[in-house]
Design goal:
By secondary structure, this protein is an alpha+beta fold. The chain folds into four domains: about 90 residues, Uridine Diphospho-n-acetylenolpyruvylglucosamine Reductase, domain 2; about 120 residues, Uridine Diphospho-n-acetylenolpyruvylglucosamine Reductase, domain 3, CATH 3.30.465; about 110 residues, Alpha-Beta Plaits (2-Layer Sandwich), CATH 3.30.70.2190; about 80 residues, Alpha-Beta Plaits. The chain is built from 14 helices and 18 strands. The strands form four sheets. It has a seven-stranded antiparallel β-sheet with strand order 15-12-14-13-17-18-16, sandwiched between helices. Strands 5-6-10-8-9 form a five-stranded antiparallel β-sheet. A four-stranded mixed β-sheet has the order 1-2-4-3, covered by helices on one side. A hairpin with a 4-residue loop joins strand 5 and strand 6. Helix 12 packs antiparallel against helix 13. The radius of gyration is 23 Å and the shape is globular. The mean pLDDT is about 95.
Length: about 475
């Protein structure tokens, strides 16, 4: 071990006592990898501060000794952004938890970065409000990681991405400086909006420690329908009809292809609310103010879609239990890791009108390049975000590079983005140029070099080290 690394570990051990500092050999198994299927990697140590000041101290010590730091949240990321790297210290935020303040007048919630998303959702609900950010990993993902990747989730069509709900932010810079800017005001144009540099930067520019989140009014009612649709042109027409007919009530428009539906209802075993077989299954959700008014309005809208021929079958919620059952079909993908086995997961962005054309082309590319390939398609079509998982049924070790190349080259050919909401991390790094032009990439490198000239924070993620030259 290099002398500087030994000195760094000694300084960290002196500053953090007990379970707040764990040498590499004592690293818990969960900290050795994230959800990207990359092989486990032993770090130099794991530091687990429980205060923002502790996070700043850990980063400062590592910066002084030139030792890399990899921030870790709930470890639910699929791109390898929180995956350990050799010779680095892991900075886990799992002990930096807690709701610090709920301000009903400002409709804000101030929270520490290690707090699980589901805890935040419940706190807002108990206060009579609503946190719109939602995703399948809500019970284990942490808000710092959600903001670090600019998570999207299920209701972007109405509420926008994670960055849309952030008013203030506290973060640690690569030299260990703690910057506290916990703004609660919606209108604040006093200089640069610095927080936007760190939201979506995957811990490469700074480590988020606290955030002020903008809460929304709690919906007075939620209605949902699970629809069977037999032509993709009708799916697109249904989306347009939902936007026109439901207006601001429309909170989700999720589409599941037949291949996904088979795996969800057969392999995972989720009960199907529909009896027939369809090419597409569409989950439409609307959040309203009053069930007496908005319930019949939603029912009438669904009936109009039957009459127009866009929908051939549908189950309409009669209770929140039904809404949860409909969402269970969409959340079944969270069990693909254990039920399907090792696979490669993708989160891409495309024009909604071309998503089925993409699926057809992508299947063909995978069949040509990957032995015994299978893939399934689903996603937040209302906001242009398609998910897919792909694997070789027969390969002992998944041919990740062949699978990724087939998918991302098809994305490039369709003019889409290789990452809609999960970040770049390690796995998407070779393909970043498919979605960003040379001028954009050069500006990203300049920002990284300006804020982190030593490349201390999460080196090798998003950019290779040689990109800093």
């Amino acid at each position: 071990m290099p002398v500087e690394a030994q000195a760094c570990l000694a300084a960290l051990a002196s500053a953090f006592s007990g379970s707040a500092f764990l040498p590499g050999a004592e690293t818990p198994a969960r900290n050795l990898q994230d959800t990207s299927y990359l092989p486990p990697q032993m770090p130099l140590a794991v530091v687990r501060p429980d205060t923002p000041e502790g996070v700043a101290e850990a980063v400062r010590i590592c910066a002084q000794h030139g030792v890399a730091v990899v921030p870790q949240g709930g470890l639910t990321g699929l791109a390898g952004g929180a995956h350990p790297i050799a010779g680095a210290v892991m900075l886990s935020l799992e002990r930096l938890q807690g709701i610090e303040d709920i301000d009903p007048a400002a409709s804000t919630l101030t929270v520490r970065a290690g707090t699980p998303l589901e805890v935040i959702q419940r706190a807002a609900d108990d206060a009579g409000f609503f946190i719109p950010l939602d995703l399948g990993a809500r019970g284990s993902c942490q808000i710092g990681g959600n903001l670090g990747t600019n998570a999207g989730g299920n209701r972007v069509i109405r509420y926008g991405m994670a960055r849309e709900m952030v008013l203030g932010l506290e973060y640690v810079l690569p030299d260990g400086t703690l910057v506290t800017s916990l703004n609660k005001m919606i209108k604040n144009n006093a200089g640069y909006d610095l927080k936007q540099l760190f939201i979506g930067s995957e811990g490469t520019l700074g480590v988020i420690t606290r955030a002020v989140l903008r809460m929304q009014p709690r919906p007075g009612c939620v209605n949902a329908a699970l629809c069977g649709v037999d032509d993709y042109a009708d799916v697109v027409s249904l989306l347009g009809a939902a936007r026109r007919g439901l207006g601001p009530m429309l909170s989700a428009f999720e589409v599941m292809w037949a291949d996904y539906w088979y795996e969800a209802t057969t392999t995972v075993g989720v009960r199907s609310p529909l009896t027939g077989q369809h090419r597409f299954y569409v989950l439409v959700e609307a959040q309203g103010l009053s069930d007496e008014i908005d319930g019949p309005r939603f029912q009438g809208w669904i009936e109009a879609q039957f009459e127009s021929g866009l929908v051939s079958d549908a189950a309409i919620s009669q209770s929140m239990g039904d809404v949860a059952a409909f969402w269970a079909t969409r959340d079944a993908c969270s069990e693909f890791g254990s039920r399907l086995g090792p696979h490669v997961a993708f989160d891409i962005g495309l024009s909604a009108a071309r998503m089925d054309d993409f699926a057809v082309a992508c299947r063909a590319q995978l069949a040509e390049r990957v032995p015994d390939a299978m893939s399934v398609y689903y996603g937040h079509i209302g906001d242009g975000n398609l998910h897919l998982v792909a694997r070789s049924r027969s390969a002992e070790t998944q041919p990740m590079s062949q699978i990724s190349a087939a998918v991302y080259e098809t994305v490039r050919d369709f003019g889409g983005t290789i990452s809609a909401e999960h970040g770049i991390g390690l796995l998407k790094k070779p393909y970043l140029s498919y979605s960003r032009n040379p001028q954009e990439l050069a500006l990203m490198r300049r920002l990284k070099a300006a804020l982190d000239p030593q490349s201390i924070l999460n080196p090798g993620k998003v950019f290779d080290m040689r990109d800093m030259a």
